[in-house]
Amino acid sequence: MPEQTRPAAPRSFATAQVQAGFDSGIAENTAIPSIHQSNGFEFRSLAEARDLFALRKDGNIYSRAANPTVLVFERRVAELEGGIAAAGVASGQAAVAVALLALAKQGEHIVAARQLYGGTIDLLQDTFADWGIEVTFVDQDDLDAWRGAVRPTTRALFAESISNPIAQVLDLGAVAAVAKEAGVPLVIDNTVATPYLQRAKDFGADIVVHSATKFLGGHGTSLGGVVVDLGTFDFTAEPERWPQLTQNYPRVPDGSLVERFGETGSPYIALVKTKYVHDLGPSLSAFNAFQLLQGLETLDLRMERHTASALTVARFLATHPAVSRVHHPGLESSPWHAQAAAYLPHGVSSVFAFDLPATGDAEADFRLVEEFISRLQVIRLVANIGDARSLVAHPSSMTHSHMSPTQLAEAHIGPTTVRLSIGLEDARDIVDDLARALDQIPVAESRVELAESVAR
Q1: Which of 30, 113, 277, 410 has its CA 20 to 30 A from that of 55?
Q2: Taking a C-beta distance cutoff of 8 angstroms, is the pair 404, 122 a contact?
């Protein structure tokens, strides 16, 4: 049968993560996506260039806004998430920023979970405030708080499917129902879960963002982010709320983004790319897109190893006398165990935290954690997650250090909270490493005795 008449075959998750978005029959006929390391692209004619710049025609103009290697990455992640289009950007932080900026402008409002990565909190409470976008933070488990925070100017609800660092599992379906009632999209940061552990679209999300730097790439070599339109939110139902999509767009002559892309693509992703990525410049490089594509090819295999090892480690920590609490939703003792079973059918988070016994003395608590981390040999002290290597961090002095004491307490982060990202090493080596470091912590009968022993 000639190639051009062969019908497209249905693809499973594992097949899509290796093949989606790439046609080997185009141009160079390479078996894997090529690195198109070019700033710009040559036009066949001035008429073609005019059509491309006016968005009347799809094609390559300049790598700040679009690149063929990045396009393969975008198509692949979009298919894995069940979306209709995606925008690759320079980092996960950029993905969160442009995803929300395309929805909310000055004078408008976002409702966000307060259990978020510290850098996201910084973005929403500081930088967005500078730009006149107000954000209300709510307890992600309090549905009444989500409903009560919605205003006429609200333009999005935002949360992480699995929170960093405590691994709280969002009741995504319930929050999606609140968003639907409010008539606004639910934006989910699916970085920790990945589309393998959870397809947020299946539970009602409308837009997904990832820090591809983490599990999608998986090897700690390349920064990247991605925004995915899941195709579930109708921006034309209340067009007056979304003039950036439904009214004339200056960069599309005589028309709106909905009119130009509504039938064949995503008006929302077109806005993200042609305005926010184009104007602000957080572009994903072709080389990093290539590196991230290599990681994507083994995503399911890696996630199975990550999650299995993490559960083994969490169960060990739960039995150690020097550990006061383990925050892992795979444990039956976790408040989010039932939600993990419902929302994470292929495995539970490999990013989680545990608490060493706190003394009430800030310096003593810091020294306790510092000495514990200094004894680790397999697990590395790195401000990252989702790496092939197992990593450790101290949220209150590192990733979440800009948060107030109240915010830290509301996020269940204490002075002796330790975050782990379990990698691909042998789980026995990881457990043994933790055991050696924990066994040297004196298990005192009272916090006072422990404070005295640490201070010596």
Answers
A1: 30
A2: no
Q: Alpha helix locations (H) across 202-325?
A: 243-246, 257-261, 267-271, 278-280, 286-296, 299-319
Please list, in sequence order, all residues whose beta carbon lies within 8 angstroms of the beta carbon of residue 193, skipping any fewer than 6 positions away: 161, 162, 200, 344, 349
Q: Find tokens 């036009």 and name the residue.
A: 43
Our measurement of the distance from residue 70's CA atom to the centroid of its chain's CA atoms, rounded to an integer in Å, reads 18
> How many other CB atoms sit within 10 Å of the CB of residue 45?
8
How large is the average pLDDT for residues 142-166?
A: 97
Check residue 3 and give its pLDDT: 41
pLDDT number for residue 194: 98
Q: Which residue has the higher pLDDT, 16 or 184?
A: 184
Rounded to whole angstroms, the Cα distance separating 424 from 295 reads 13
The SS3 assignment for 155 reads strand
Instruction: Enumerate the β-bridge partners of residue 421.
Output: 351, 391
Map residue 392 onto helix, strand or coil. strand
The Cα-based distances of 222 to 11, 55, 189, 300, 422 in angstroms read 27, 30, 19, 19, 19
419-437 average pLDDT score: 97
> Token pair of 349, please?
């988070």
In this predicted structure, what is the pLDDT of residue 454? 42
Separation of first and last alpha carbons in the chain: 79
pTM: 0.90
Q: How confident is the model at residue 264 (pLDDT cuts 50, 70, 90)?
A: confident
**72 has pLDDT over 50:** yes
Distances (CA, A) of 148 to 137, 169, 421, 453: 11, 21, 34, 47
Place of tokens 């929050």: 175
Residue position matching structure tokens 């490089």: 285
Annotate 136-152 with DSSP letters as a single string.
EEE-TT-HHHHHHH--T
**CB within 8 A of 373, min separation 6: which ones?**
381, 392, 394, 418, 437
- How distant is the alpha carbon of residue 135 from its chain centre? 19
Q: Judge whether 310 and 165 are in contact, CB under 8 Å.
A: no
Closest of 172, 156, 161, 162 to residue 233, by C-alpha: 156
Tell me the average pLDDT of the chain: 92
Confidence of residue 97 (pLDDT cuts 50, 70, 90): very high
Q: Is the peptide bond before 165 cis (omega within 30 degrees of 0)?
A: yes
Chain segment 413-426, per-residue pLDDT in tens: 999 999 999 999 99
